[in-house]
Amino acid sequence: MCGIAGIVSPGRLATSLTAAVERMCAALHHRGPDGTGTYVADGIALGHARLAIIDLSERGQQPMTNEDGSLHLVVNGEIYNYVDLRADLQARGHSFKSHSDSEVILHLYEEYGDDCLQPLEGMFALALWDAPRRRLLLARDRFGIKPLYVAQEGEALYFASELVAIRRGGSAAAEIDPQAIYAYMALSYVPAPFSVFRGTGRLGQRAAAATDLLAPPPCACAVTPC
Predict the structure, then answer these.
(1) Which residues of 51-87 are buried (b: 16+ CB within 10 A; e: fewer)?
(2) For 3-225, CATH number?
(3) Is residue 219 among the annotated active site residues?
(4) Which listed residue (2, 116, 219, 221) is catalytic?
(5) 134-137 — which CB contacts under 8 Å span 24+ positions?
(6) 224: Cβ–Cβ under 8 A, 6 or more apart, which residues?
(7) How far is CA 118 from the centre of its chain?
(8) Per-residue pLDDT of the chain in tens (226 residues, 90 and over written 9)
(9) CA angle, residues 79, 82, 127, in degrees to nearest 5
(10) Hey, where are the domains in the chain?
């Protein structure tokens, strides 16, 4: 069990995002006690609390980047068929720097774009930042096993594995959502896209959301099945 977190905030400098994403990671330490990593640039911050399972070396640390440093990835979960995917990608000319299952996602994205989600078998929640396109991809596995919460406030988008991390990042969303309470009383759980707080939702299973910093409005999310 790892934890991921991040902020997309157009126009916000990297220096002002660093402390926020570090607070988010600290809130997720119990999910990943083996290390914390961040990637921060103007308008974007990614964070990861690591529980090392497959590649225990430093090469498996996240955020993970591709060869030219144009893509940055944080993942919570496990890709069961990564060995077969890795072999196919190597046959296509891709080079790997780790033995982590997560790294195959970077190279699948290089090869197939958003369709990189299609061949993945496993349980996961991920955030992939495409720096040249100024675009963030959020996604969850087909069964929604791994959680991913999102909150949007104006132009800023917060996301994390747990609600507490979103709050620690600076999101003010704290008003109880009556619809979520009704759902919990009827179903004994809060279904996606709701969360217990109004203004904070949960990315649905088999869902992907793309946030493009270059498109108006800056943080509009288009949700598609994965």
Answers:
(1) ebeeeeeeebbbbbbbeeeebbbbbbbbbeebeebbe
(2) 3.60.20.10
(3) no
(4) 2
(5) 134/43, 134/212, 134/213, 134/214, 135/210, 135/211, 135/212, 135/213, 135/214, 136/6, 136/8, 136/44, 136/210, 136/211, 136/212, 136/213, 137/109, 137/208, 137/209, 137/210
(6) 114, 207, 208, 210
(7) 17
(8) 799 999 999 989 999 999 999 999 999 999 988 889 999 999 999 999 988 888 777 888 899 999 899 999 999 999 999 999 999 999 999 999 999 999 999 999 999 999 999 999 999 999 999 999 999 999 999 888 999 999 988 889 999 999 999 999 987 667 888 989 999 999 998 888 888 888 888 887 666 666 676 543 333 333 444 4
(9) 50
(10) 3-225
- The model's pTM is 0.87
Write the Ramachandran bin of 129: left for phi over 0, alpha for psi from -120 to 50, otherwise beta. Answer: beta
Give residue 31's identity as a one-letter amino acid code: R
